[in-house]
Amino acid sequence: DAGVIQSPRHEVTEMGQEVTLRCKPISGHNSLFWYRQTMMRGLELLIYFNNNVPIDDSGMPEDRFSAKMPNASFSTLKIQPSEPRDSAVYFCASWIAGGPHEQYFGPGTRLTVT
Amino acid sequence: QKEVEQDPGPLSVPEGAIVSLNCTYSNSAFQYFMWYRQYSRKGPELLMYTYSSGNKEDGRFTAQVDKSSKYISLFIRDSQPSDSATYLCAMSPYSGGGADGLTFGKGTHLIIQP
User: How close does chain B come to A78, measured CA to CA in Å?
Assistant: First the structure.
């Protein structure tokens, strides 16, 4: 299995631009999580989906952030407009119901907003 | 006060030493405790997990949970340079099989000196 796939791996953009991060979970996994990691705040949960349905988005920092999961094999996290304080590493993780309790993380997208 | 507190380090020890990593937490609803290891510029990987209080051993690694003190520990015996990484504790309420987003500590940066 290829594991969780994220793209792009690196993104550099200017303030005010729209940014879209993409995630492909492990095939057969039915839960998907978006996390953000910074030096100041560590790894924080932004939103998660069960069976493509958003369950908890209380971690989404502002209305500028939105996430979708149109099908079981694809999810996007969008920031519009982006700001320098959004600079972070964004991780996607997936999990299978009834399986071991490990959430499998992707390699992350390193976002820099200038 | 954050829900999960973890000393960021860095913690530097000589090869072969016993390493002790710790987290404290404030949410008494947490029942499921995990340790993730994260190498530089990689996603976190699950190292160990325990449910409720007690000890769990896996090779050179031992995880301990003391719910009465809201304190968890990870011990690494015979530490190796390859153990150099950031170790993150993570927690969630037990949801009876459903997936929950995890609450992470900020991570402790561990350096094993050859």
Answer: 19
